[in-house]
Amino acid sequence: xxxxxxxxxxxxxxxxxxxxxxxxxxxxxxxxxxxxxxxxxxxxxxxxxxxxxxxxxxxxxxxxxxxxxxxx
Length: 72
Prior knowledge:
With 72 residues, the chain is mainly beta.
């Protein structure tokens, strides 16, 4: 899956009991289309993302609310 969107809030960086970094955040992806009556509709979908280890540390360090991200 490839997701391109924006963070809805600042990431939460925590550590497990074994001190393994875990970062959770939500991103919104949007779609714009015309409905049956010809009006433009914006539709947003939310996705929960969980990152581990060094990736988690980088997400917690560099990402903030509103950041544009590409998740693969």
